[in-house]
Design a protein that fits this description.
alpha/beta, Rossmann fold, Glutamyl-tRNA Synthetase, domain 2, Ribosomal Protein L25, Chain P, 3 domains, 27% helix
């Protein structure tokens, strides 16, 4: 391979191309995405999904979806279905039907028996505390278990009894006999099977012993003849153990390759911590629009294409780093700008009466999306009574205030130019109504009035507009790295203003017919989407109009 070609490839692509050029695995590229069905997919998973599926596609290969369902007490069919739904929504197709580690329980059991027969595994009745104490520390070698040299026949008998349910949970475990002096703690005789009398979501009560993740994971790759096991850096220290199993069992040599995981500011990727937010009522569920889950981001209005673009821009690296959430929002904003229908919504309405308009209600044309000619137009009702934003009017505006005030002139978007002639206040001095006159020949698209207006305001018709609710979605946490504070609970950084509900907004009638997958730009406000889980017209904010990331570049 030429040096120029190397420069254009990330380090995983370099490995893949070298393997293809050498004819390794008969020129096959077969990857897999192996989630545990104990929670919903989150932003970190999107990186792993894109890496595995995109690279396999690039090199004409396949990607398996395999659920590593080896812990029956935390797994559920709900999570399986949610994961499948999220991957499909992201735009990827897996090879064949989904696979499950539980499909391989009989084979994994045979692998464990072979390790025992070859003197490479033993049954240990020590407690978890005793095993941990004998493991030593990263700077001190461990000590052998007193049961490490138990006779093979006795180990086989005890392991069979474990399988037959003759022993209680925690009574004993099966450990691989590796090296208690290894500097790699994962190599110090790891537990590979434990007793769990628990109902499994797929195998029911057939099994009461379950393989540990480290034993099931690598061997499942080998059973499926996965050529390249692409995973995040947290598994780099597990690789030596996976290779040890491959060598001792003489099975297909899947190669594990690690890349940097996706860490995004103001987000967390611990399913345990995300579950705590759900269970403790800080959010409404895994798909709460504030959550960094795929389902949450979908409900918030993030397009799948924007998430894929984000993963592509972040790239594939060898070292973990923190990605600023503004980059993700910039990718979302760029996609939404091209596809969103522009609509007018007044979030804090104040009535404006046009005293010289006597045409009843008329319909005015409005572009659905100026970025897309094919998006067409819609009609917006207009009459003598409209609503504008309360903060678009000031009694005594400053010099460079280009909105409305006494004797000030502005254009109404898609409509006419108006001039404020009067206003009314209540006993506390708060403005309750604005009066204005309009210029009949200043209609948008055919303005012959000669009147100049520096500012343009959005508005809705007072009679025809719809009441809607707006959920302003903010950062879930007040700290960009809440999980980094090991001495504190992440809930201490929960942002109490992450959800602000506005039930007072008014919208043009078009919003009565929008679909759940239609992206909207509320003019001058941001991007929004209809909440698919709410009753009535409730809109979640997706992202602001302002792109702070673009200014950094």
């Amino acid at each position: 391979m030429t040096e120029e070609k190397y420069k254009a490839l990330n380090f995983i692509e370099q490995i893949l191309e070298e393997d293809l050029e050498s004819g390794k695995h008969q020129g096959r590229v077969h990857t897999r995405f192996p989630p545990e069905p104990n929670g919903y997919l989150h932003i970190g998973h999107t990186k792993a999904i894109c890496v595995n599926f995109e690279l396999a596609k690039k090199y004409g290969g396949k990607t398996n979806l395999r659920f590593d369902d080896t812990n029956p007490t935390t797994e559920d069919t709900e999570y399986v279905e949610a994961i499948k739904r999220d991957i499909e929504w992201l735009g990827f197709e897996w090879n064949d039907e989904p696979y499950f580690a539980s499909d391989y329980f009989p084979q994994l059991y045979k692998f464990a028996v072979k390790l025992i027969e070859d003197g490479n595994a033993y049954v240990d009745p020590s407690s978890a505390e005793e095993i941990a104490a004998l493991k030593g520390t990263p700077t001190e070698p461990g000590k052998n278990s007193p049961y490490r040299d138990r006779p093979i026949a006795e180990n086989l008998q005890l392991f069979a009894e474990m399988k037959e349910g003759k022993h209680a949970d925690g009574a004993m475990v099966l450990r691989a006999k590796v090296d208690m002096t290894s500097p790699n703690m994962h190599m110090r005789d790891p537990v590979i099977y434990r007793i769990k009398h628990a109902h499994h979501h797929r195998t029911g009560d057939t099994w009461c012993i379950y393989p540990m993740y480290d034993f099931a994971h690598g061997q499942s790759d080998s059973i499926e003849e996965i050529t390249h096991s692409l995973c995040s850096l947290e598994f780099i220290h597990h690789r030596a153990l996976y290779n040890w199993f491959i060598e001792k069992l003489g099975i297909f040599p899947s190669r594990q390759i690690e890349f940097a995981r996706m860490n995004v500011s103001y987000m967390i990727t611990s399913k345990r911590k995300l579950l705590k937010l759900v269970n403790d009522g800080f959010v409404t569920g895994w798909d709460d629009p504030r959550m960094p889950t795929v389902s949450g981001m979908r409900r918030k209005g993030y397009p799948a294409s924007a998430i894929r673009t984000f993963c592509d821009k972040v790239g594939v690296a060898k070292r973990d780093n923190l990605i600023e959430v503004e980059l993700l929002e910039s990718c979302v904003r760029e996609d939404l700008n091209a596809i969103s229908t522009r609509v007018m919504v007044v979030t804090d309405p104040i009535k404006l009466t046009i005293t010289n308009f006597d045409q009843g209600t008329i319909l005015l044309p409005a572009d659905n999306n100026p970025e897309d000619e094919a998006a067409g137009k819609r009609e917006v009702p207009f009459s003598s009574e409209i609503f504008i934003e309360r903060d678009d009017f000031m009694i005594d505006p400053p010099k460079k205030y280009f909105r409305l005030g006494p004797d000030r002139t502005v254009r109404l978007k898609n409509a006419f130019i108006i001039t404020c002639t009067d206003y009314q206040t209540d006993a506390d001095g708060n403005v309750t109504e604005i009066m204005a006159t309009y210029y009949p020949d200043s209609k948008s698209g055919s303005d012959t009035s000669g009147v100049k207006a520096k500012g343009t305001l959005h508005w809705v018709d007072a009679k025809e507009s719809l009441p809607i609710a707006i959920h302003e979605i903010g950062r879930l946490f007040t700290d960009p790295t809440p999980a980094s504070h090991e001495d504190k609970e992440i809930t201490e950084f929960f942002n109490d203003e992450s959800l602000i509900i506005n039930d007072n907004a008014r919208a043009e009638p078009y919003l009565a017919s929008v679909k759940y997958d239609e992206h909207l730009q509320f003019m001058r406000k941001g991007y929004y989407i209809l909440d698919e889980n709410a009753d009535g017209l409730v809109f979640n904010k997706t992202v602001n109009l302002k792109d702070s990331w673009a200014k950094k570049k």
